[in-house]
TrEMBL record:
Pfam families: HTH_5 (PF01022). One of its GO terms (biological process) is response to cadmium ion. It comes from Corynebacterium sanguinis. SUPFAM superfamilies: Winged helix' DNA-binding domain. InterPro entries: ArsR-like_HTH (IPR011991), HTH_ArsR_DNA-bd_dom (IPR001845), HTH_Metal-responsive_Reg (IPR052543), WH-like_DNA-bd_sf (IPR036388), WH_DNA-bd_sf (IPR036390). CDD domains: HTH_ARSR. One of its GO terms (molecular function) is DNA-binding transcription factor activity. Residues 4-97 form the HTH arsR-type domain. It comes from the Bacteria. This is Winged helix-turn-helix transcriptional regulator.
Length: 97
């Protein structure tokens, strides 16, 4: 069972992940499926190092996971339930506006 302290930690990590506009853009893109840093950089018109730094933060927050594939690393949201929860949060917030 999650304690209040562990729930607070999760809320803080989610808030940190979504507080930055660039990380939010990366998350929105990853909601559509896994991606490589170079593809994210091209699509979002960012530098690869900028994308890599934000992906590291998202990974440290427990939101995304890195999947090594040979010389490349693919990033995806850590769990399908989190994808569903983030989409529901977006839909609910948009409906309330």
């Amino acid at each position: 069972m999650l304690t209040i302290a562990s729930r607070l930690d999760v809320m803080n990590r989610l808030g940190r992940a979504m507080a930055d506009p660039t990380r939010s853009r990366i998350l929105l893109t990853l909601l559509g499926g896994p991606a490589y840093p170079a593809a994210l950089a091209r699509e979002l018109e960012l530098t690869r190092s900028n994308v890599s730094n934000h992906l590291t933060c998202l990974r440290d927050c427990g939101i995304v996971v890195a999947e090594p594939q040979g010389r490349k690393t693919r990033y995806e949201i850590v769990d399908a339930h989190l994808v569903q929860a983030l989409n529901s949060l977006l839909d609910t917030t948009l409906a309330a506006d």
